[in-house]
Design goal:
By secondary structure, the chain is of the alpha/beta class. The protein is about 30% helix and about 25% strand. A 3-stranded antiparallel sheet has the order 1-2-3, with no helix packed on it. Helix 7 runs parallel beside helix 8. The protein is globular, with a radius of gyration of 17 Å.
Length: about 200
């Protein structure tokens, strides 16, 4: 699914920016508060709209695990599934996969782990994550990132930053945000931002 995405800057004060984000036929002002998946598990779409919520975040990983391998029509669009007419910001949800993985599960093409529900070994990859965000109808998507604990050792945080940068696509997909990592290490976060910006993404998070 390809959605036209544009951003118009209205005012800027140093690093702070105020503008208008247009995603398809939806218009929102930024900065934008995006509610997490836990909120959508508690409140219905209409209830969220009554509270003035305009965007929600949804991770692709749990839907992929539920569906198993292949494409599944019943997961075709999250707007219908959660009865939501606002913006859906997709993420890979890789953090949870890395929490389940053993150290040797950190691979150059993704992450291997055992599904705690079925015991089956799974391989979650950057390609799979973006494909599922597309299939789920996410208005904005996010690239794959190698997750590490915020207080992880310096070498681990640097390795996560380098691997996340290596997964950034050469041909940037429309409406896709670049994942930025680095935990509690400022210089790694800055390097991650620089790597993302070098690919001219729509934005980063």
């Amino acid at each position: 699914m390809v959605t036209e995405v544009t951003f118009r800057l209205i005012k800027q004060d140093q690093a702070a920016r105020y503008g208008r984000l247009t995603v398809g036929n939806r218009q929102l002002t930024t900065p934008l508060l995006v509610q997490t998946v836990k909120v959508t598990a508690t409140l219905t779409g209409p209830e969220l709209q009554e509270l003035g919520v305009t965007a929600v975040k949804q991770a692709a990983l749990p839907y992929w695990l539920t569906a198993g391998e292949g494409s599944h029509p019943q997961f075709s669009d999250l707007h219908d599934r959660i009865k939501w007419s606002g913006l859906v910001v997709g993420t890979a949800g890789a953090e949870q996969a890395y929490r389940w993985a053993k150290p040797r599960g950190r691979k150059k093409d993704g992450v291997s782990f055992h599904d705690p529900q079925t015991g089956q070994q799974k391989r979650y990859t950057p390609v799979t994550a973006l494909a599922w965000q597309d299939q789920l109808g996410c208005d904005l998507k996010t690239t794959f990132d190698r997750w590490e604990n915020y207080y992880a050792p310096v070498d681990d945080l640097q390795a996560a930053g380098q691997q996340t940068a290596a997964w950034l696509p050469d041909q940037w997909p429309q409406g896709t945000l670049a994942a930025v990592v680095g935990g509690g290490l400022k210089r790694v976060r800055q390097a991650s931002v620089q790597a993302a910006v070098a690919h001219s993404p729509f934005g980063y998070c």
